[in-house]
Amino acid sequence: MAFFDQQVGVLIDEQKLQSRIRELGRQLTEEYRGKELTLVGVLKGSVFFTTDLARSIDLPLTLEFLGLSSYQGGTETTGEVRITSDVTKPMAGKHLLVVEDIIDTGLTMKFLLENLRARNPASVKVCTLLEKPARARTQVPIDYRGFVIDDVFVVGYGLDYGERFRNLPFIGVFRGS
Ligand code: IMP
Ligand code: MG
Fold first, then answer.
1. Which of 1, 18, 68, 102 has a 20 to 30 A CA-CA distance from 113?
2. Residues lining ligand 1, Cβ inside 6 A
3. pLDDT at 123 (0 to 100)
4. Per-residue confidence (pLDDT) for residue 72, from 0 to 100
C-alpha cells in the first residue's frame, strides 16, 4: 500500500496532468516567441509545475522563484500575504509569467500582481495549474489555466496539507487525517 492511500483520492492523474502541461507549453511557445520570457514560480507549491512547464516551452527563458506565505496552517486562507523570499534579478523590462499552483480566493495573486507591476516589467501574465472559481473573493486575470476544479481541498504535485503530500505525482483530494 502506498503511504497516501488512506488519505488521498486521485482527482487528476499523472498522465492527464502531464499532457495538459505539454499543451500549455506549446501555447506559450507560440505566444512568447521573440520575447524575453521569465517564469516567476511561486514557492513552494508551484515548483513541480514550474519545472515541468519550463521544459515544455521551446524558447530561451529565465527562471525566478518567489516565496509567499498566505497561510497560518489548516485549509483556510488568512488573507494576509507576506513575501518570504524575493526574486534574485531586476524585473524591469522583462515579460513575466507568474506560475502558480492554484488560485483559490485570489488574494495571494492579487497581492503578487500589484507587487510585480510596481517593478515596471514589460508585461505580467498569470499561468495557474488549478483554479477554484467557487471560492474567488477577488477578480484575478488568469491568462493560462490547467484545470478548473470544484471546491475541494487538493494535495499533490506541489500542493500540501501541513507540508505533506507535495511529492505525489498527481493531484489528489485530501480526505482528512
Ligand atoms: P488564495 O490566496 O486563496 O488564492 O490561495 C492561494 C494559495 O493557497 C495557493 O497558492 C496554495 O498555496 C494555497 N491553497 C489554496 N487552495 C489549496 C488547496 O486546495 N490545497 C492546497 N493548497 C491550497
Ligand atoms: Mg501557492
1. 18
2. 45, 70, 77, 100-108, 153-155, 159
3. 98
4. 56
Distance 102 CA to ligand 1 centre (A): 6
Ligand 1 atom 15: residue of nearest CA: 104
Q: Which of 5, 101, 104, 160 is catalytic?
A: 104
> Is position 104 annotated as part of the catalytic site?
yes
Which residue carries 505539454 as its cell?
A: 22
Peptide bond into 44 cis (omega under 30): yes
Q: What are the residue ranges in the chain where pLDDT is below 70?
A: 71-79
In angstroms, what CA-CA distances link 8 with 15, 75, 134, 161? 18, 15, 21, 11
- pTM attached to this predicted model: 0.94
